[in-house]
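BACKBONE STRUCTURE TOKENS:
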Amino acid sequence: MSTDFIARLIGMVVFAVLGVYWGVYFGKLTDKPELYAVILGLVGVLMGLILTPFISTRPVRSLRALLARVSPQTLAAALTGLLSGLIIAALLAFPISMLPSPFGDVLPFVGVILFSYLGIAVFVMRQNDIFSVLRIPLPGRPTTEEAPAPKDVSRSILLDTSVIIDGRIADIARTGFLSGTLLIPRFVLNELQYIADSADSLRRQRGRRGMEVLAELQRDTIVPVRISDIDVEGVREVDDKLVILARQLRCPILTNDYNLNRVAEIQGVPVLNVNELANAVKMVLLPGEPLAINIIQEGKEAGQGVGYLDDGTMVVIEDGRQHLNRQVTVIVTKVLQTAAGRMIFARTERE
């Protein structure tokens, strides 16, 4: 039973009671209290069923979503600013209240609103400077001279299910190239758990591998990992939720899913693709360069041999079949970039 349904039932009863009460009150003016009570009671039931979620559960849900998007540092700065503003307003309330009426009656309340707003605005705008000034070294922590450069923890990076299952994200995060907080929405974690509980053994192994990678991310990497309950209402597909959430949070999506990559780019959402990163850091080879490689299998064409570099790049060697299961020196003839990755063509070194 959903919270909206429960709220509608409660609202129906409350509005029905209010409708009957006002119906009896207005009915006494026309000597027809029963008729007015029934009519306004039914109107109250209808209004309770329709309006209750809009004045109860949905504002609360929107507030939760808003608070989930705000970083802990910003929340702490806002609460500190609010407390500071209230203290200043309380100190000024007594002297202001001594002013002649109506100023002495109205200005203390105006001062509370004004100083509360100013406190929140100032502390949120200057939160980085304030926290850096008030930061006190804790026991066992490095001092200011020894501390490493702070990372941009306010930046969030949404993780897709595919990149968690892939596993390379743990190694990338451990190197320190990612700056910010790795944000994993609850619906991504639920999809990962659903895959881990699948009846298909292959999907089950992939899901369990994703769970192990997630545990490794939380345990070993220097990049903070946060699991959030934030959700997108009215959308069922996980990829669609990620794109909408990334637009709302103005943060990139980390994935290796080609379709999600294309959909996100079309909608103007920045994407960090692990496959593109892997291709970018592969060894650069130019035609004419020598290369030592172990030929491990036959190629599709007659006489061809196939070998692989350490980064997984396939090398097709002309006349390499005769050197099968041997390491030979070949000369690069062509480098071909395809959608699936990079392919290198070479020929054996002629004596």
User: Anything to note?
Assistant: The first strand starts at residue 156 and ends at 159.
